[in-house]
């Protein structure tokens, strides 16, 4: 039921924006899309994907899992593409987590590595969003809405941790609480370790800069001439809005927030919607290398691994891996967005 509610919520947001502002406003930026913008988006996509994959490697290796950077980049590209084209925006992360865990022979730690990696990125994003809200040239009502957005996004992270713990436990009750404690322990070990958190912080900030730059490219493509100093404080919370669970492949909350924030800042709600839609299309184009990874890895079977590692032995972890894989397929909220 919950995945369908997420999907319907995102569709309702997009339908409401289309009804209120019109389809022309949503498509205005796409008419100005050119090859230069697409090439810049692809270049920024390479940079941010490498940075995020590096962050994942850092966390996974600290948790004792082997993860070469080249493999991580391919897996991360695939997860970005699946997140962009499938409802909910987190199925790619679930696939990435379970797939890596199965290859490494420990699905639990594989899932924990992705949860820690995504949580670290969201915490850095929220930490940057708070001061960005304070310099945002918008009325107090919009600032209050932005602060509410930050709280909801952080609450979503906590909720996902709870869902993940329940997904890892069959019997509920004490067992899922113990699983939650294990997940939180993994988050502490993965994020607060002296040799991990500086790298996670720097890589997350660099990736965030790339995402904000793509938003600026989208704004210029959509025809906005506002200075970057005025746009950036709007874009950081917009990125945070994408973590909210009511979305269709990331679409919905981002467009609603941009329309509200641009309108309150005197830049026009229609302009904000056009910028958000243009960003969404550019981000989708930037994720297309992930489609190539999907096609190239279709021949990877459950019995082996293209990277030279032996498959998980059924007596050790095969049935556990299969059960968790099925759970993640049916419960996409088990990965942090």
TrEMBL record:
Topological category with respect to the lipid bilayer: Multi-pass membrane protein
Pfam assignment, any one: LPG_synthase_TM
Residue segments, region Disordered: 303-337
Keywords associated with the record: Cell membrane, Membrane, Transmembrane, Transmembrane helix
Transmembrane segments: 35-54, 149-167, 196-219, 279-296
This protein's record includes keyword Repeat: no
Composition bias, Basic residues: 322-331
InterPro entries the UniProt entry points to: L-PG_synthase/AglD (IPR022791)
This protein's GO CC annotations: plasma membrane
Localization in the cell: Cell membrane
The protein's name in its UniProt record: Dolichol-P-glucose synthetase-like protein
Organism: Prauserella muralis
Source species taxonomy: Bacteria, Bacillati, Actinomycetota, Actinomycetes, Pseudonocardiales
């Amino acid at each position: 039921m919950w995945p369908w509610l997420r999907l319907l919520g995102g569709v309702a947001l997009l339908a409401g924006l289309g009804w209120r502002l019109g389809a022309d406003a949503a498509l205005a930026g796409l008419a100005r899309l050119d090859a230069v913008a697409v090439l810049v988006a692809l270049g920024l996509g390479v940079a941010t994907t490498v940075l995020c994959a590096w962050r994942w490697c850092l966390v996974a290796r600290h948790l004792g899992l082997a993860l070469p950077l080249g493999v991580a980049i391919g897996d991360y590209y695939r997860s970005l593409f699946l997140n962009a084209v499938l409802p909910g925006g987190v199925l790619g992360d679930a696939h990435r987590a379970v797939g890596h865990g199965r290859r490494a022979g420990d699905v639990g730690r594989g899932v924990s590595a992705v949860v820690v990696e995504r949580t670290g990125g969201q915490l850095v994003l929220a930490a940057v969003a708070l001061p960005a809200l304070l310099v945002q040239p918008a009325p107090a009502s919009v600032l209050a809405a932005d602060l509410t957005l930050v709280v909801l996004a952080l609450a979503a992270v906590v909720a996902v941790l709870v869902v993940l713990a329940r997904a890892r436990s069959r019997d509920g009750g004490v067992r899922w609480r113990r699983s939650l404690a294990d997940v939180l322990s993994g988050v502490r070990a993965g994020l607060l370790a002296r040799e991990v958190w500086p790298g996670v912080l720097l890589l997350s900030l660099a990736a965030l800069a790339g995402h904000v730059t793509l938003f600026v490219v989208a704004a210029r493509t959509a025809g906005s001439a506002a200075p970057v100093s005025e746009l950036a404080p709007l874009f950081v919370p917009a990125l945070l809005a994408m973590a909210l669970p009511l979305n269709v492949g990331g679409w919905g909350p981002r467009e609603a927030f941009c329309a509200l924030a641009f309108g309150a800042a005197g830049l026009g709600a229609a302009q904000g919607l056009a910028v958000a839609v243009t960003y969404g299309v550019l981000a989708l184009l930037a994720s297309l290398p992930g489609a190539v990874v999907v096609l190239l890895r279709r021949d990877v079977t459950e019995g082996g691994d293209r990277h030279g590692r032996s498959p998980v032995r059924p007596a050790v972890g095969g049935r556990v891996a299969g059960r968790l894989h099925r759970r993640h397929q049916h419960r996409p909220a088990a990965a942090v967005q």
